[in-house]
Prior knowledge:
The protein is α+β, with helices and mostly antiparallel strands. It has one domain: Nuclear Transport Factor 2, Chain: A (Roll). It has helices at about 1-20, 25-45, 55-60, 80-90; strands at about 65-70, 75-80, 100-110, 115-125, 135-140, 145-150. It is globular and about 40 Å long. Pfam families: DUF4440.
Amino acid sequence: xxxxxxxxxxxxxxxxxxxxxxxxxxxxxxxxxxxxxxxxxxxxxxxxxxxxxxxxxxxxxxxxxxxxxxxxxxxxxxxxxxxxxxxxxxxxxxxxxxxxxxxxxxxxxxxxxxxxxxxxxxxxxxxxxxxxxxxxxxxxxxxxxxxxxxxxx
Length: 153
């Protein structure tokens, strides 16, 4: 009897999985997760010593024209242009020196046109950040691009 119930339960989960794959929202979430992955990979490339504005240009292709970045700890709301100028300034001043060499994502929560991420930068001084110190970031999407990033750390 327990085996039959377990089998029915597994079949039920399997059907849910098939339904999710056929659900257009499932495809959209997959695209959003891929966009998030591209965002982090491009940032890691930019953070390396020797990166250049071509790397920044590639990153900014992921954003909508009216993109905004919000980080109250760093001064508030930044337009796409503000953020672009910040990347350029950091490149020119040598801030991107490879000290951040990975990004560890601890968890990901999907919402309507949004993903909330708990992550931490991996650095030479913090090579194994614990999950409990994760920093929350919310990514919002529109028309297949990142519309807004809001940092809560």
